[in-house]
Amino acid sequence: MLNVAVIGSGTMGNGIAHVFAQHGFPVTLIDLNQTALDKAWTTIGKNLDRQVAKGGLSEDAKNATLGRLQRSTSLADGVRDADLVVEAATENVSIKLDLFRQLDELTKASCILATNTSSISITRIAAATQRPDKIIGMHFMNPVPVMKLVEVIRGYATSDEVTKQVMDLSRQLEKVPTEVNDYPGFVANRILMPMINEAIITLHEGVAGVEEIDTVMKLGMAHPMGPLQLADFIGLDVCLAILNVLYDGLGNQKYAACPLLVNMVTAGRLGAKSGEGFYSWTPGSKELVVAPRFRK
């Protein structure tokens, strides 16, 4: 597998492109928005500089990584020579289905089409193509250059050969691939999102405050960050979308999103990316400040 195309230049997309390029793969990062591509390029450069400063990467290796990266605002041009496409676009079913229909037509027949979706059915995505055996999930964790896990999700028709290729490829990226089957939420979010939702319910019912809930989980359960801080980091809109996938797919009331979460998303309080969620987020500041709405 030689040429890689990554679709979507947001947080996940630029991180995935970074990791592939760092490990020797020619990568084309694709986004229809040139401004987003330019921002992603700056982010990758800063992250590589950080690795150099920490001694994890040489200056020569950094330059070689950047030399293996290309940018494109054309989907057709960007995927034409790809052996693997990793889609990291918006977590929206209709967008992904439309994109995979296009990819099926634009890529060579041998190309593996992977999605970084955190919850949407691989089988459903595969059904939009004529190559369901070559459709697979590669769910990277954020931040991609740091986090070791890759959930490798097999759709109903994903072949053994493609699964093995993607597992081996993940190891080449110095990641730890974990093979899971295609059910709503896979493993990571089927366990994580109900925990986050329960933390929001605990806050909503007045059991404890934001800081107190997160402190209990950090100090009592050895979590590196509390569930409410993590929800802000993920994006409350993303959390809600995944809970809705779980609820719709499994039909169990325990996956129903807390009304407080629904209201916050409706009000545009999406967490770190909007500047406010359960905490207030100031660019460049590492201080954790509870949002005014939740201060006692």
Overview of this protein structure:
The chain is an alpha/beta fold and 296 residues long. It folds into two domains: 4-181, NAD(P)-binding Rossmann-like Domain (Rossmann fold); 187-294, N-(1-d-carboxylethyl)-l-norvaline Dehydrogenase, domain 2 (Orthogonal Bundle). The chain has twelve helices and ten strands. The strands form two sheets. Strands 3-2-1-4-5-6-7-8 form an eight-stranded mixed sheet, with helices on both faces. A two-stranded antiparallel ribbon has the order 9-10. Helix 1 (11-22) crosses helix 2, helix 8 (188-204) packs across helix 10 (227-234) and helix 8 crosses helix 11. The longest helix is centred in the N-terminal third of the chain and has 20 residues, at 34-53. The protein is globular. The termini are far apart. The mean pLDDT is 96.
H and E string: EHEHHEHEHEHEEHEHHHHHEE
Proportion of residues in helical segments: 40-55%
CATH architecture of the largest domain: 3-Layer(aba) Sandwich
Beta fraction: 5-15%
Between the first and last Cα atoms, what is the distance in angstroms? Answer: 55 Å
Structural class: alpha/beta
Enzyme class: oxidoreductase
GO biological process, one term: fatty acid metabolic process
InterPro entries: 3-OHacyl-CoA_DH, 3-OHacyl-CoA_DH_CS, 3-OHacyl-CoA_DH_NAD-bd, 3HC_DH_C, 6-PGluconate_DH-like_C_sf, 6PGD_dom2, NAD(P)-bd_dom_sf
EC number: 1.1.1.157
